[in-house]
Amino acid sequence: MKRYGHGLVIGTFCPPHAGHHHLVRTAEDRCEALTVLVCTAAGELVAARTRARWMAEVHPRVRVVRSVRSVRTAGRVDAVFTSERHGDRLARAFGAEHVCVDPERALFPVSAAAVRKDPVGCWDFLERPVRAALTRRVAVLGADPAATTLARSLAERYQRRGGVWAGTRWVPRCGAAREEQVARTGAPVLFCAAGTARAERHLWLLAGPQDGGLPGRGRKVVLRGAGSPALLGAAVDAVDTFLGESWGLDGPGAGRW
């Protein structure tokens, strides 16, 4: 198998998925040095610098840049690796050879568009930093120990569904760093026993009178029901409804994740 001096992979990686990582690893194995160029995308959902950080984390031995000028500072490009049959034209722009990797997407049947449309269905194709960015944070706001018990019970209920939900986690009142750590290894939803309304969440479950005031950003659902089973049932219904809606990742004006 032919080897190259300096290889190049170009993409928007919005978001990066298993197919992208396979492409980069294949190029890395066949090159003495590899540069990954993360491009800015029109109407991008997340900044190029963030996507570059994700790629650098997953591929620590690869040089990740955000401009063609930075590519050229590494020297002549010998090979451009893509998964597109029309990558020949891109390679010619760099005076390089085109190497096409799995153009049929047979090894990893996923695309960035598919992830944006159905993140839950594509969850197994995502690495830790993207999972953390996409995870829906659901907080229970109410008096302890009831709020903590409900957050734990919700996580256990989703775990029993199996599949992608088997890794559902919950966290007690803790800092953002701990939440981020848990979200990187969990399921598409993370339950938080929130002591206050200060943090930002995607969905707030209000499980009683809110002496500290209502939370700001995020959808709010007041749970109705007497007793723990009824309260848990109402909470599951609210979360299922929320997760079943579009996550707003694949349309105009989707904004930040």
Automatic annotation (TrEMBL):
<dbReference type="InterPro" id="IPR004821">
    <property type="entry name" value="Cyt_trans-like"/>
</dbReference>
<dbReference type="GO" id="GO:0016779">
    <property type="term" value="F:nucleotidyltransferase activity"/>
</dbReference>
<dbReference type="InterPro" id="IPR014729">
    <property type="entry name" value="Rossmann-like_a/b/a_fold"/>
</dbReference>
<keyword id="KW-0808">Transferase</keyword>
<dbReference type="InterPro" id="IPR052735">
    <property type="entry name" value="NAD_biosynth-regulator"/>
</dbReference>
<feature type="domain" description="Cytidyltransferase-like">
    <location>
        <begin position="9"/>
        <end position="78"/>
    </location>
</feature>
<dbReference type="Pfam" id="PF01467">
    <property type="entry name" value="CTP_transf_like"/>
</dbReference>
<keyword id="KW-0548">Nucleotidyltransferase</keyword>
<protein>
    <submittedName>
        <fullName>Adenylyltransferase/cytidyltransferase family protein</fullName>
    </submittedName>
</protein>
